[in-house]
Amino acid sequence: MHFEEKSSASKGLPALSWPKGEHIGVKIQWFVEWPFSLLRWFTVPPCYHDGKWDSWRHWFVISSPMPMAMLLLLTARGTDGFTILVGKLPLYQLLLIIGLALSVLAYFVVPRRHPPHWSLQIVLGTLAFVMSICWLNLEANEVIANLEAFGLMFDIDTAILGLTVLAIGNSVGDWVADTAVARAGHPSMGVASCFGSPLLNDVLGLGIALTTKIIIDLDGKPYTFDINAPAYNKVKLSWIFLGISLMSSVVVFPLFKFSPPKAFGVVLIYFYIVFMVFSILDEVNVMNIKL
């Protein structure tokens, strides 16, 4: 395979190169995003997945171990992690030393002028995946913290913010991706993704979270709760509406060969609005729903 090294970052590093020839809005957006893009390149090691490799990617791989170690510590222990001592040495300093050693090793192992060996690509890809999960976890925590602060400032119950702002924001990415897939001529794939993504969140998100809580916080003891408590009314209400919408989709989509009429989409939108109204009314005690 012919390989041509890029001599500058402007040709090989997405989000770091100046958007030459673009309108002023794109340039302003680039200016705002550039520090975060640089931080991403420092903490998520690049691999050869896009068929591109150059000296800049080689340099970012070498410089990434120390920032990755700090991001892992921040994800695992938060800011308290920087106060943990290992003997008399702070943990973050020990991680920086280990990261420096890995950077030196990467300098001699990772090639500069040609793509790395496939085995090294697997290692880099795995590290990039793990660090992406760390970033998603930190961002999710910050979103929740901001929502709680927003609720305290304007005296809005955080449950209502979760049902509205957080729920919609969490689904926008899936909505855009699924719509793009469907419009690209793969309606069955788009529909499958609509159901597969929430299923992954429910199965892995709840499964891993509850299992971790049992192992760490409860010392392996069963986690018990009262399903009839008023706090779980909204959960039951959510599952009722979700079950009805899923059953309707199971019938309608195969019936219309995964190209349902627009009227069904309107019905689902109104169905969601009804769910939101019931949930908010129950939260503000206007309507006491007992399930």
Topology (SSEs and partners):
Blueprint: H1 9-12, H2 24-43, H3 55-63, H4 65-77, E1 85-86, E2 89-90, H5 91-109, H6 118-154, H7 158-183, H8 187-216, H9 233-255, H10 262-283
Antiparallel strand pairs: 1-2
Helix pairs in contact: 3-5, 4-5, 4-6, 6-7, 7-8, 7-10, 9-10
Can you offer a commentary on this structure?
The chain has 291 residues and is mainly alpha-helical. The chain has ten helices and two strands; from the N terminus they run ααααββαααααα. The chain has a two-stranded antiparallel ribbon with strand order 1-2. Helix 7 packs antiparallel against helix 8. The longest helix is centred in the middle third of the chain and has 37 residues, at 118-154. The chain is globular, with a radius of gyration of 24 Å. The N and C termini lie far apart (64 Å). Residues 1-11 have low confidence and may be disordered.
Q: Strand count, sense and closure of the main sheet?
A: 2 strands, antiparallel
Spell out the helices and strands N to C: HHHHEEHHHHHH
Instruction: Please bin the fraction of helical residues.
Output: 55-70%
Say what oligomer this is. single chain
Specify Rg, calculated over alpha carbons: 24 Å
